[in-house]
Amino acid sequence: MKSWRILFSSLLDLIFPPTCLNCSALLRVEQSFGPICSDCLNQVEINHAFFQSKDLRRVPAGTNPKFQEANYPLLAVSNYHCPTTRKLIKDLKFNGRTTIQPTIKKLLLEYLHFIQLDLSDFIIVPLPLSAKRLRGRGYNQSEIIARSLAEITKLPVSTKLLIRSKHSRPQSELKSKQDRITNIQGAFSVGQVDRPANLLIVDDIFTTGATINEAVKTLNNFGFKKIVALVLAKR
Ligand SMILES: [Zn+2]
């Protein structure tokens, strides 16, 4: 059965050869980093530092981060002004391109290598979507990033620890920081907590930080030791 599937997919590749999602160049069959060519992959701007969430102050690799509720360490793989990064996130979030998971994994691997942050005893927590949005999209893009991160770090992923208890408007539809804060207030609750641990919250982008700030605020009432956030891109 499996060999038939491979044969069928090889036939499809012959008729419709896979192309780069960013520049439409033909892809080499043997490449292992998803539907993007190596030229476009190299255009992705990778940060060589992490940041403090409050003011996005750059923290060089090797420095001890501050763990505070209103100023947690933010690990941002890339930046939203990079056109290739923007395209990747848009495809993942709005165009159903879950096939870019190997691309995400490759970028995460490169970024984690640069920042060298000790993540032992952390649990990976993808930011949950509301049930309504999950039904509409069919998957949670943050969970796809979280699973890639887990493959690299071998850390556990929990999708039951942080719960989305309220549906809210997409933050991208709201322009002002205050509107975004109000929109997301009370959106999360804490579900199953097995043990006190360090948490690595994962989302796709960090714009004003309103969504992750609200999640951190909710989690902080439950005595977690250290909380860190990771996104594919920051503003
Ligand atoms: Zn390309």
Task: Explain what this protein looks like in three dimensions.
The protein is α/β, with parallel strands linked by helices. It has one domain (43-234). The chain contains eight helices and eight strands; from the N terminus they run H-H-E-E-E-H-H-E-H-H-E-H-E-E-H-E. The protein has helices at 2-15, 38-43, 83-93, 101-115, 131-137, 141-153, 177-184, 210-220; strands at 49-52, 57-60, 73-79, 122-126, 162-164, 188-190, 198-206, 227-234. The strands form two sheets. A six-stranded mixed beta sheet has the order 2-1-3-8-7-4, sandwiched between helices. The protein has a two-stranded antiparallel sheet with strand order 5-6. Strand 7, helix 8 (210-220) and strand 8 form a beta-alpha-beta unit. The mean pLDDT is 92. It binds zinc ion (ZN). The site of zinc ion has 8 residues, from helix 2.
Question: Could you outline the blueprint of secondary structure elements for this entry?
Answer:
Blueprint lengths: L1 H14 L22 H6 L5 E4 L4 E4 L12 E7 L3 H11 L7 H15 L6 E5 L4 H7 L3 H13 L8 E3 L12 H8 L3 E3 L7 E9 L3 H11 L6 E8 L1
Parallel strand pairs: 3-8, 4-7, 7-8
Antiparallel strand pairs: 1-2, 1-3, 5-6
